[in-house]
Amino acid sequence: MADPTVAPLLVAGGTVLDADGSRRADVRIGGDGRIAEVGPDLDADGAQVLDATGCLVAPGLVDLHTHLRQPGKEEAETIETGSRCAALGGYTAVVAMPNTTPTMDSAAVIREVQELGRAALCAVVPSGAITVGRAGEQLSPMAELAELGVTIFTDDGTGVQDDRLMRRALEYASGLGVTLAQHCEVTSLSEGSCMHEGEWSSRLGLPGQPAEAEELMVMRDIALARLTGARVHLQHLSTAGSVALVRAAKAEGLPVTAEATTHHFTLTDACVASYDPVFKVHPPLRTDADVAAVRSGLADGTIDAIATDHAPHTTEEKERPFDAAPPGMLGLETALALALTELTGPDADPRLDVAEVLALLSWRPAAIAGIDDRHGGPVVPGRPANLCVVDADATWTVDRERTASRSRNTPYAGRTLRGRVRHTIYEGTPTVIDGDATR
Amino acid sequence: MRHLLGIDDLGRDGIDEVMALTDSFVEVSRRAIPKVPTLRGRTVAWLFYEDSTRTRLSFETAARRLSADTMNFSVGSSSVKKGESLRDTAQTIQAMGVDAIVVRHASAGVPWQLTRWLDCSVVNAGDGWHEHPTQALLDCYTLRHHLGSLEGRHIAIVGDVKHSRVAGSDVRAFAALGAKVTLVAPPTLLPASLAGWPVEVSHDLDAVLPEADVAYVLRMQLERQHEALVPSLREYTRTYGLTVDRARRLRPDALVMHPGPMNRGIEIAAEVAESSQAVIREQVSNGVAVRMAVLFLLLGSGRPDAHATADPVPTEVPLHG
Q1: Nearest to A199 among B113, B128, B196 (CB)
Q2: pLDDT for A160-190, tens place per residue?
Q3: Among A369, B77, B94, B318, which one is least packed by beta carbons within 10 Å?
Q4: Which one is the CATH code of A60-369: 3.40.50.620, 1.10.510.10, 3.20.20.140, 2.40.30.30?
């Protein structure tokens, strides 16, 4: 959390956009890091003025799915560098995945991440592992971790394979008021794979993972949500079948939420034709039909949130042969622009409006993460000042060398995108001013 | 042509060009002293991350018959065992002044990755389950020798297509030359999708054999038995093996091919492999001439001198003493 006493700010000239709609208004932020006043043409009154002319002033973005690599893989990313990426992308909070070394399955590791997070440029919300060591055998001390403030548990990177254990995890979690998030993948079907199984894997001679490896676990977890009544959040859905299953579950009224990543609605398995491991992700890039289904799911509310699955890897790791390289790509700095470019552009089908995109990136994920008391809320007096100021029409070209990450594995280098973060404000303190990180 | 990565790089015209050059090198190979000075001063390096006997020997023989110098990089006793990356290894070899690297790797796509980091020519000598283009070229050459044109000919490729780099290149090459290709295998040994593959599929070898000009038998990869791809080798032989009885269904002029090494008694009976219809040894001997043609195309007269134009050694490349 930021310093409780911060310099007063005035975000001037912008259009406020939150879950309640849009209106032309300036935003004054007080020395307590909270929004003091919202209204047209406010006086600076000695406050630092951040120009928001032509921009949207929105609640800061919230990422449900970030890999910060610390502890254990600091050569790829640290909490500090990852949080700088987040700030540059308009985020004020990220949920850090637990597949660190050691795993975030104990109070000691959670405390370490929380301690490191205090100096970060955004809120770092540690998730806990569902099972010890993410090994899928023994439940982690969820109650102890929940007491430390952990609200989301996941074994991300692998799904919980054992049906009975997942049932018990859901039952136990429901008593704690926390959410279980699942990486949906039946590993007996996906073992050895490195891309989507289909036309391209056959052409390229690479072992493929069928869509059913994901869909079977989505199906099982929906059934377990029905059985236990517990909340399930399905991570990085990538197939048309998964979207259809979640749509049906929601129609049934089950407590199921879902996220999709930016790369699963902007890239397809055809990208792998270059054998460049920058396109290797987990779950893998899928087909045109899957991309269309994910977009439809985002448009009709089946998918609740856009996540990044920001997964930094060093250049050396990403220069291995495709099947041996680790999966994952950077995402925090490009997610908002990709969503605006691909989902609100003139060729988008279906076409979303900017408010819908911000809902997917800010207030809905904040609610799923259980941090909507501080993030993603309406821009009104009294709320913590976690904001992003976005020029939705500005274009920019992704430059791999200019990322704040310690890694370089973005597949979007050279792409011109629309939508640029001008300022980000975290707990009343600017972390990004005019597109540059303040520290 | 700068590299030979896959058959699609060549297309029909490129395959024809290799075939025409191969004729010349077959003639060279028949001489009392089968050696020409064509690539004198050129250096070809072998970067084999996977065991290979015939392909490496074939390339080495081809290079020596063209008077090229050769550099053999044995992965088993190299810095790769110490964890050196693919890029560092390849760039280190290039820095010693090679004109071409012939690479074999268990991972599909490695030859394509190397071209992003190297200035010298790259020749794919087999990548994962993907391609083995010089094998396909020698297969085409062997077939043309016996059949003339492949236009309209029916070639049955039998066995483990899914994991076969030979099949990957053969399908592309045979189709480019106008042949009709039928894949004969259980669904577990076929690629997950055949969209875009110019092939027909059958699960009935007995029905296909009488129609075929060629039965191309693939090696059964015994190491895959634990994957439950077929119930047992016995059942595989019963249903897809080119047994003596089954081979009788072939027309008398039909050819039998195999890329080697053979599992006699499993995918092919020893008697069939030794029969007059089998051209398996001819495939091997044609391999040398085909690889001479490929190296000549890449490095022969008029081709740029890779080390004359190469960038200085990048500072990040570790040089091993």
Answers
A1: B196
A2: 999 999 999 999 999 999 999 999 999 999 9
A3: B77
A4: 3.20.20.140
